[in-house]
Design brief:
By secondary structure, this protein is α/β, with parallel strands linked by helices. The protein folds into three domains: 176 residues, Gcn5-related N-acetyltransferase (GNAT) (Aminopeptidase), CATH 3.40.630; 229 residues, Type I PLP-dependent aspartate aminotransferase-like (Major domain) (Aspartate Aminotransferase, domain 2), CATH 3.40.640.10; 107 residues, Aspartate Aminotransferase, domain 1. 39% of the residues lie in helices and 20% in strands. Strand 7 and strand 8 form a beta hairpin. Helix 7 runs antiparallel to helix 14, helix 8 packs parallel to helix 14 and helix 15 packs parallel to helix 18.
């Protein structure tokens, strides 16, 4: 793991880029004239994004991407679209591929290529163009690049304009071996092969006996997993499920209390405001647990009818105590409602005594996004005061199928739930991954937001001090094939990065992630000291 890839952002890296540029495009390929400094700064330097290969602190390979027009090729052959045999809405130009001669063993080139492709896909580019030296035509064709237009340059340094689309790349030799990024995201989930197979089965009617059987089976699996009395399966996201819960609360006369210690507690308040619920909020700092004695006193003093909270506050990694919330509910005879979107399937969950709770299919359960759940303690009647699709009672009255539903999504979920025949094994694996990664991150000096005693073992939020460090590290880890959570607005605003442990990850991939993460931390530490 001495070799890793990143986007150049340090002055020392740019100095080495200019030396490698000179070595390649002056001394090796005589495209430019010699100079005394033996450094060559590209004329588009300030507009280039350089992807580099580092061995320790040495830049041993590079390639750059630029999307601002006019391109270098525009200036040599005219507007490239007039020559391209394909249409492209979002085109980029790839330039300055160079690898130090001592490291041309294939590994650097393949790594640069994979990092480049990941970057281009992430940026939404649908085609790329290059000026490929005629000396390396076999190499470029290996990547899938296709020639277009006419040769440019001269006999000493001739170049062939070439293009590449996503579809052509995926069919190329390199494209066939490009692995999907290892998923450390809190959603969507990594889908197991058997779940994918179930999803691709032939669809059948939601009014059939077959569908009734599979839906009943799924409901039984979900209530057994959570110790809930009832559950309704909705076709939509967790937002839909929470809107359905809010709709039920709108039928009550009393005032409620919403607990807020993160982004998703904040969103519960948004649901409540849109439904014009009568409520107060109790808010603590993001990343802090609730002082439940104070919450209990507040509920007693104000005689609230309901309390609504997030079980696992995904934005911070705090697991709000379900037992303490249930104690308050029972002590003061208030209805307890929970957002269990992230905690369902990740930690033991006992919803006995919980009036309403929401969950989804596309997180730890490991199925496709598109199904959500509302668990309820008692039977619910339909109400004409609610929109039809948000009326929980209409699902109860129709035995769970009031409207059109997808057999494919339900079949996939049924397959995904099979791993919970031994739920403690799933919980233990998630906890093991969390503890291993968190301990390593903290040993590197990383700052994990949630205190250990209040941490949800499925996701950790890491806070950074250097401006945009979370985004930079997240981008660079993605180039190396590791997908972390850092692009949500609330994370970028706070310079936070998240590592989710809900997906099945091999020991090898965890170790690689930690090694690369450590390398980037060391890189930033050296920048600060310099």
């Amino acid at each position: 793991m001495s070799l890793f890839f990143k986007i150049a952002d340090h002055p020392a890296e740019f100095v080495q880029i200019e030396k490698l540029n000179y070595q390649t495009f002056v001394e090796e390929i005589p495209q430019h004239g010699e100079n005394a400094t033996q450094q060559l700064r590209d004329r588009f330097h300030n507009e280039n994004t350089y992807i580099i290969a580092l061995k320790k602190d040495q830049v041993i390979g590079m390639i750059c991407v630029r999307h601002k027009r006019p391109f270098s090729l525009d200036q040599k052959i005219g507007e490239v679209e007039e020559h391209l045999p394909v249409q492209a809405e979002n085109l980029c130009e790839i330039r300055l591929l160079a690898v130090d001669p001592d490291h041309r063993n294939g590994r650097v080139f393949v790594g640069l290529t994979q990092s480049l492709i990941r970057y281009c896909l992430k940026m939404g580019y649908d085609a790329a163009i290059i000026s490929g030296t005629t000396r390396q035509q076999k190499l470029y064709k290996h990547l899938g690049f296709q020639p277009f237009a006419h040769l440019i340059g001269d006999a000493k340094a001739a170049f062939q304009p070439m293009y590449l689309t996503k579809a052509i790349f995926e069919a190329s030799d390199i494209g066939k071996i490009l692995k999907e990024p290892v998923n450390f995201m809190p959603g969507p989930a990594t889908i197991a092969d058997e779940v994918q197979l179930a999803f691709t089965s032939s669809p059948y009617s939601h009014r059939s006996k077959e569908f009734d059987h599979i839906l009943t089976h799924v409901q039984k699996q979900l209530t057994t997993l959570t110790n809930a009395n009832f559950v309704q399966v909705l076709h939509g996201t967790g937002t839909l499920a929470n809107d359905v819960v809010a709709g039920q609360l709108s039928l009550l006369n009393g005032k409620g209390l919403i607990l807020n210690n993160g982004e998703f507690g904040k969103r519960l308040m948004d649901h409540a405001k849109r439904w014009q619920l009568d409520f107060d909020q109790y808010q603590v700092e993001w990343g802090e647990p609730f002082p439940f004695d104070q919450v209990s006193q507040l509920v007693h003093e104000n005689q609230y009818e309901w309390v609504w909270a997030v079980h696992c506050e995904t934005s911070t990694g705090v697991l709000n105590s379900l037992e303490r919330l249930k104690e308050i509910s029972q002590k003061h005879n208030v209805k307890l409602c929970l957002d269990c979107v992230s905690s369902l399937g990740a930690v033991p969950l006992n919803l006995e005594g919980v009036t309403f709770a929401s969950g989804v299919s596309g997180k730890t359960l490991g199925s496709y996004t598109g199904l959500s759940f509302v668990f309820h303690q008692e039977e619910v009647e339909s109400s004409f005061c609610l929109p039809r699709y948000l009326d929980l009672g209409s699902y109860v009255a129709a035995n769970g199928v009031p409207y059109t539903q997808s057999s494919n999504l339900v079949e996939a979920l049924a397959q995904a739930l099979k791993k919970y025949e031994q739920p403690n094994e799933v919980y233990d694996r998630i906890k093991y991954r969390y503890e291993k990664i968190r301990k390593a991150i903290e040993d590197m000096g990383g700052s994990v937001l949630a205190p250990w005693e209040h941490a949800a073992p499925l996701i950790m939020t890491i806070a950074f001090s250097k401006e945009e460090e979370a985004r930079t590290i997240g981008d660079n880890l993605f180039l190396n094939g590791y997908q972390l959570h850092y692009e949500s607005t609330y994370l970028q605003k706070r310079n936070w990065l998240q590592i989710s442990c809900m997906n099945q990850i091999s020991e090898k991939d965890m170790n690689k992630l930690l090694t690369i993460f450590s390398r980037y931390k060391d890189n930033y530490a050296s920048e600060v000291s310099n």
